[in-house]
Amino acid sequence: MPLCEYFLATDAELSSLAESGSPGDGLARGQIPAGTMTRVDAKGFDVLPIEALGKRLGVGRATADGKPDIHSDDFEWFVQRLTPGMVAALASQSDEACAEHARALTEAGVTDWDPSDLRGLLSELSAMARRAEPEGRGLFMWIST
After folding, report:
1. Which residue has better confidence, 9 or 29?
2. With respect to CATH, is domain 3-144 assigned 3.30.50?
3. Where are the domains of the chain?
4. What is the pTM of this model?
5. pLDDT higher for 73 or 22?
6. Of 35, 110, 122, 137, which has the highest C-beta tally within 10 A?
């Protein structure tokens, strides 16, 4: 199960991430000022589950097409930007809708997360998505294989 984190970042913070390799490492090394980047650990909720959620939310793609925004030389880790449509769809979700999506994704076998834990993750992603535009940040997914 790949490591996965979702985070909000400006272009400058994303550049710092390219130097550190992970959102947590950049924060720990002081390359990204503490308190500026919001992130949530989501081990295993990677490309397939987020694309399945995007399909449920009616967006064409959850992640941007093409080469990842940043990546290691060997693609051991990479960062994908969530599409504007996905961010807008996430931002519009209520806690009740997050619970329904969590139940549906679990029942469909898309993820092995516990539905209540997944509801919490989806609620956090929804809250992050609501902050993205006002803060001038993108919503990104970091994966380490």
Report:
1. 9
2. no
3. 3-144
4. 0.86
5. 73
6. 122
